[in-house]
Write a structure and sequence with these properties.
- The chain is α/β, with parallel strands linked by helices.
- The chain folds into two domains: about 130 residues, HAD superfamily/HAD-like (Rossmann fold); about 100 residues, HAD superfamily/HAD-like (Rossmann fold, 3-Layer(aba) Sandwich).
- The protein is built from ten helices and 15 strands.
- The strands form four sheets. Strands 5-4-1-13-14-15 form a six-stranded parallel beta sheet. Strands 7-6-8-9-12 form a five-stranded parallel beta sheet, with helices on both faces.
- Helix 4 runs parallel beside helix 5.
- The longest helix has 12 residues.
- It starts with 7 loop residues before the first helix and ends with a helix.
């Protein structure tokens, strides 16, 4: 439940006292190639305040290096160790579940490279798994090949359960929308590795090196980010700069701990306090 506080300053103060910050990216840090207001100042505050922070994204398209370079183009320099993606989580999961397996991989370079790095090769003949992530090359042939492999016994895995995501053009289809035709055709449900799967959240906490009570999850989606934080036992911050809007909160049987318009509010409060 959302905590009872007297005013926005008390909310911000409670958030700023956390030692570790797990932040989603799309809808929190940027929309497509557009940096959101206050993000630059927020990231600098994290660094200057010596906070442990991790950008934990359900997007599987880009590697940590590519994500770093993407932020550099927007004027932010964040080292690679501060990024963890659903592609990395999915590759780690399959390498532990079935060492030496093969997969028919539908996804961008970030997903392909994550599997290569853990020794899982692409197989379009008789794969053990069909793995679906976000990609711009998704088409009818992709659906047919993936469906055929699942019918022939391959297990269906998806990098994340996001149905949509924010972009410069508005809301666009995401991973679960790509998986849906394959699930419908085969009558098999995919296993989704990304948020809110606790596998990814526990990895994030280990990377931060903080206890759950000292961490906060910041995201724009009630159905992945916020529920992931709740089920991991950490405080949550819903930012209204992405997919979920305030009017939609009544649709969910759970609530974020705090609600902000965007991450920039944390810095604006910090600045006011420093000048008072």
């Amino acid at each position: 439940m959302e905590k009872v506080v007297r005013n926005k300053s008390e909310i911000i103060k409670s958030i700023r006292e956390k030692k570790g910050f797990i932040c989603d990216m799309d809808g929190v840090i940027y929309h497509g190639e557009i940096l959101l207001p206050g993000v630059r100042e927020f990231v600098e505050w994290l660094k200057d305040s010596d906070k442990a922070f991790l950008f934990l994204t359900n997007s599987s398209e880009r590697s940590p290096l590519e994500l770093r370079q993407r932020l550099q183009r927007m004027g932010l320099d964040v080292p690679e160790e501060h990024f963890y993606t659903s592609a990395l989580a999915t590759a780690k999961f399959l390498s532990q579940q079935s060492p030496g397996c093969t997969a028919y991989i539908v996804g961008a370079a970030g997903l392909q490279n994550a599997f290569y790095d853990v020794g899982i090769s692409h197989n379009d003949v008789d794969p053990d798994y069909v793995v679906i992530g976000e990609t711009r090359s998704y088409n009818y042939d992709t659906i047919v090949r993936a469906t055929t492999h699942v019918f022939n016994g391959a297990k269906l895995i998806a990098t994340n359960p996001d149905t949509t995501g924010p972009s410069e053009e508005g809301i666009v289809p995401a991973c679960k929308a790509y998986v849906a035709p394959i699930e419908i055709a085969t009558k098999r449900e995919a296993y989704y590795v990304g948020k809110p799967n606790p596998l990814m959240m526990r990895t994030g906490l280990r990377m931060l090196g903080v206890h759950s009570e000292d961490a906060v999850m910041m995201g724009d989606r009630m159905d992945t980010d916020i529920i992931a934080g709740i089920e991991t036992g950490i405080d949550t911050v819903l930012v209204l700069s992405g997919v979920t809007q305030r009017r939609e909160l009544k649709l969910f049987p759970y609530s974020p701990t705090y609600i902000l318009r965007g991450v920039g509010e944390i810095v604006r409060y910090s600045y006011r306090q420093a000048t008072e």
